[in-house]
Design a protein that fits this description.
Elements (H helix, E strand, L loop, with lengths): L2 E4 L2 E5 L4 E5 L2 E7 L2 E2 L1 E3 L1 E2 L1 E5 L5 E2 L2 E8 L4 E8 L3 E9 L2 E9 L5 E11 L4 E4 L5 E3 L8 E5 L8 E5 L5 E5 L8 E8 L2 E9 L9 E3 L3 E6 L3 H15 L2 H6 L10 E4 L5 H8 L7 E5 L21 H10 L2 E7 L2 E3 L5 H4 L14 E6 L3 E3 L7 H7 L2 E4 L5 H18 L3 E5 L17 H15 L4 E5 L11 E3 L13 H4 L4 H5 L4 E3 L9 H12 L5 E3 L6 H4 L3 H10 L5
Parallel strand pairs: 24-25, 24-35, 25-26, 26-31, 31-32, 32-33, 33-34
Antiparallel strand pairs: 1-2, 2-3, 3-4, 4-5, 4-7, 6-14, 8-9, 8-14, 10-11, 11-12, 12-13, 13-22, 13-23, 14-21, 15-16, 15-18, 17-20, 18-19, 19-23, 20-21, 27-30, 28-29, 28-30
Helix pairs in contact: 7-8
Organism: Paenibacillus eucommiae
InterPro entries: DUF6259
Protein name: DUF6259 domain-containing protein
């Protein structure tokens, strides 16, 4: 029998994994006859905005069988009323928790997977993949919000024998969720959070996600194939690929942040045919980089570079931003009411370089935001659920691409999809909006190739290329980066989106050489980054750059 009940104890067994629940606590997880828990934990945790987590304790528990393969657990406690539906299908156990409380500010409900043996490795699709062992100093206590940080809604845990326990959700509605990690030398505690849309202040109920648990004796890759199958089917990725221009399959090398220097084009052409090269080109506008968005007007001084690049056969992605607006732009008054606000504090969110010697800083909360944009970069984030904003962005892109007869474009910050205070606008979240922008562009300009920044299971759907962010190493690499970076998302996405370099991939020094190796380790295609300081690394290639060209030309694996 899949489900066995004895008083307040319930045993749930699929063909791959067995769970034991005693009233409101997860008591056991068994795989292949072996226990994976070192300590029972509360099955559920309530999360209220601005407060610490609150483990749910039941004062009463009812178990209602729904046939041989399904059961409802109904709890009452001081925190609220809870219903957990459990179903068993083949090798999978499905768990769908929901809760109601009289308190407002109900942010999320966490399904806790007990405290597991710390000697298992965690394999997580974050920064395109990490594998962390017991001694890893990172991700000790971390909440990875989906889809920005938890880039695909699946988690793997593998032991030395290659046995894998995995948990995931198949969510065609793209609702917010999170992965909560709490680990030390003695154990690993995982929480799978069902999260409400912001704002939280009026929320008194949480529910909707069905979390699936299973195990594989053939390693995590076999488990990942199941999720990859679902992604391919749910989002019709094969159909999207079929609509792309055929030339994108011939790209073997990429350059990010390419300067408008004709020498660059001649230098690249010495090593690889231009038709195989993709160029990310940010410096084409009449305004300085990251200033005066959404003003997208070609600088006439750039014309010779573009004409030369296209005549030689290079594919040039002009750089646009998908949701940022400069606060001193004339359109900011129109869109100022539709800017991202922090989901808990309601503070305005932005990219601001006015503090910390030009590094990213928090957005000023001064109503006179336009003043800050006069001297520094201040890009406020506009809700992409707003039809008028999407129309503005697609108009700006097509107004440039059509006269240029360009068949590719780079959309910056396509991975910027947090849950926000004003989460739903016109019935849509920012997750819906970014897909609509890319879908509109590919529909109105058939064959268009889209590149973007960062990658997750949302942004990857329409992107053929993306700049790859490295694990906690935005510009400077952490210690152990090469050890913990692990090829996960490339397997989940099955090459639907190709990874290109984001930052410091020029072979200029040992730190850059490391980033090149990690980029390749994660499945990235041969690519480099350029700026005025590192252009000599291309004009007079160092060994790392020569190796990149060799790999692009098939001369090195």
């Amino acid at each position: 029998m899949a489900i066995a009940i004895q008083e307040h104890t319930i045993t749930i067994a699929s063909s791959s994994v067995k769970l034991g629940i005693n009233k409101d606590r997860l008591e056991s997880i068994e795989i292949n006859g072996q226990s994976w828990l070192v300590e029972p934990t509360p099955l559920l945790t309530f999360l209220f905005a601005g407060e610490k987590e609150a483990p749910f304790e039941a004062s009463s528990c009812s178990i209602v069988p729904l046939g041989e393969h399904a059961v409802d657990l109904i709890y009452d406690g001081m925190l609220g009323h809870v219903n957990v539906r459990i179903e068993v299908y083949g090798e999978d156990i499905w768990i769908t928790p929901c809760a109601i409380t009289t308190r407002t500010g109900f942010k999320a409900l966490s399904l806790n997977l007990g405290r597991m043996d710390a000697n298992r490795d965690l394999i997580i699709p974050t920064y395109q993949g990490v594998r962390i062992d017991r001694d890893c100093p990172y991700l000790r206590k971390e909440r990875l919000a989906w889809p920005y940080a938890w880039e695909a809604a699946i988690l793997f845990m593998e032991n030395a024998a290659g046995e894998c326990f995995y948990a995931w959700t198949e969510d065609p509605e793209d609702r917010y969720k999170a992965l909560n990690i709490n680990r030390d030398a003695d154990g690993i505690q995982i929480g799978l959070e069902t999260e409400n849309n912001g704002p939280f202040h009026d929320k008194k109920e949480v529910g909707g996600h069905t979390w699936r648990l299973a195990a594989s004796i053939n390693g995590w890759q076999a488990a990942a194939e199941r999720y990859a199958d679902w992604l391919e089917s749910a989002w019709k990725l094969k159909e999207i690929r079929a609509q792309r221009a055929a030339w994108q399959e011939e790209i073997r090398f990429a350059v990010s942040w390419c300067p408008a220097d004709p020498q660059v084009l001649d230098a690249i052409a010495q090593y690889i045919a231009p038709k195989h090269v993709l160029i990310h080109f940010p410096g084409w506008r009449s305004d300085p980089y990251d200033r005066n968005y959404p003003n997208y007007v070609l600088d006439p001084h750039i014309r010779p570079f573009l004409d030369k690049a296209r005549a030689m056969g290079f594919h040039v992605m002009l750089h646009f931003n998908v949701f940022s607006i400069s606060t001193n732009h004339e359109l900011f008054r129109l869109f100022s009411e539709y800017q991202y606000r922090d989901v808990e504090t309601a503070a305005l969110m932005a990219w601001y370089t006015g503090l910390n010697n030009g590094n990213f800083a928090s957005c000023p909360q001064n109503p006179l935001l336009e003043r800050y944009a006069e001297t520094d970069v201040l890009l406020s984030y506009t809700h992409m659920g707003l039809t008028r904003w999407r129309n503005e962005i697609t108009k700006q892109v097509l107004t440039v691409l059509n006269p240029e007869q360009s068949d590719c474009v780079f959309l910056d910050q396509t991975n910027g999809l947090p849950n926000i205070q004003n989460a739903v606008l016109e019935g849509r979240t920012c997750i819906d909006g970014v897909q609509m922008i890319m879908g509109d562009l590919t529909r109105m300009k058939p064959g268009l190739i889209i590149g973007g920044e960062g990658l997750n299971e949302v942004s990857m759907r329409y992107q053929a290329f993306t700049q790859l962010h490295l694990f906690q190493s935005h510009r400077v690499s952490i210690e152990g980066l090469e050890q913990y970076a692990y090829r996960v998302c490339d397997l989940l996405y099955r090459g639907h989106t190709k990874f290109i370099a984001y930052c410091n991939n020029d072979g200029h020094d040992e730190a850059s050489e490391l980033r090149i190796r990690v980029h390749e380790q994660l499945g990235g295609m041969p690519s480099m980054t350029l700026n005025d300081r590192t252009i000599d690394d291309l004009l007079k290639p160092n060994q790392s750059v020569r190796d990149l060209f060799d790999r692009a030309n098939g001369l090195r694996n």
